[in-house]
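Write out the bound-state structure for 6-O-phosphono-beta-D-glucopyranose.
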Amino acid sequence: MAAARTLVILGATGDLTQRLLMPALYRLHRQGLTRDLRILGYAMEPWSRARFQSHIDKALRAFAEGFDARAAAGFVKQLDYASGQLTPQDVSAIAARLGPGTLFYLALPPPLFGTAAQALGAAGFAQPPRGGWRRLVVEKPFGTDLHSAEVLRTQMHQHWDEAQVLRIDHFLGKEATQNLMVMRFANRLLEPVWNAQHIAQVQITYAETLGVEHRAAYYDKAGALRDMLQNHLMQLFSLAAMEPLSTWDGEVLRDHKVEVLRAVKPIDHRNLDAHAVRGQYRAGRQGRKTLPAYRREPGVARGSNTETFAALRLEIDNWRWQGVPFYLRSGKRLAAETSEIAVQFRRVPGPLPGLVRADEPNWLVLRIKPEQRMDLQLTAKRPGLQLEGHGVTLTAPYESAGNSGFSAYEQLLIDALAGERAHFLRFDEVEWAWRIVDPVLRAWRHGSPDFYSAGGEGPATQARLLDAGLRWRSIAAGSGADA
Ligand code: BG6
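---
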């Protein structure tokens, strides 16, 4: 008898499946959360079920956190496999193996998303059986610009309704991202000051030490703006800036996020330098390790102008945020794994008479990497005879609170199977995010990026985005030191 729920992974022999999906499913299995779930891998390789199982066993050994050979063997034994092309005829062959509730996961190269959705639809798989459901999970990127995203949407909607399509942005499954909402709206202290009157700037940084690794074929076409800013950072941005929810409802949440994106002042291509900076890493050092230039990485075109660093300055044209710059930046091969949402408050109107050094601004920093925690930077009296202020930090560790939660993919797989859409992207979010970055992408078709040394802070030109008196926070000091 078919299990009540089936997860069909298209692209089951690929990288995403082995690095992220299977390790996440294995961990859910260990927690007893996949008991009624049949997992069916689908890919072109004409493999037997046993061959697929041993491929996944190897992947778990390499990538699963808390690997245990016995538990993995139990998990792998449940996996099923079917091979075929992405055509209606071939996919029809798995019809008998689908449960009443089936989730199709497109773990495929992006150019195949439309073809796969259409093949599944033409095979009749978008139509749920009585009392059942059918859903489609699509990985990022959803299109490569606004136009291609709209084309892809049309292809998908030939058979699938918007409500059936779950567009993944794995940042929405991260504990730190979800904490952003809880922290903002569950603390009376913050809401009254969460606006232009009290906040001077917001810096959202996602810095990685890794280079392009084995992903040049994808990355050299995508670049940092498409790979990180249009999706992940834009999500953090809209969650940080949106209005409070009147009710906990996935649609209301998504409406509020879209409202932020719609209110972003369009980037004027004639004044692009004031809003966008791109960089590419050249050779450099990390400790004693010598790092190659991006253009020397395997699979990268020798004269590639793809940006491995992108920074944007955005402004939101609404009452709450009038005049507050939001800076979004992300890059590869930077000095440290530092990722954070840093909110700088305005300075006090004037120092307390007689108080030495009290003009440091307060910062609230939500750190995502290297560890998840919140820091509130305040000024307090330095112990001693003088009335002197110095910076102190109140820290709320997140993981050491005894609950590291689920990984992003575990969380999102649970949600997708349960039909909970709040942490997936609705098409209009994707659309408005493309509207914001499209003028920059168009301009960046020409010219070349500014170079930065691998292992450093990114291109020096990023400073031109900052308003007078502001500084970029240090990436190298991401372990805790302030700006
Ligand atoms: C992915 C990008 O979506 O996110 C990668 O394609 C990036 O380039 C990754 O490294 C970062 O996410 P995480 O969760 O690994 O920090």
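---
The two ends are 60 Å apart (CA to CA).
Residues 170, 208, 227 surround 6-O-phosphono-beta-D-glucopyranose (CB under 6 Å).
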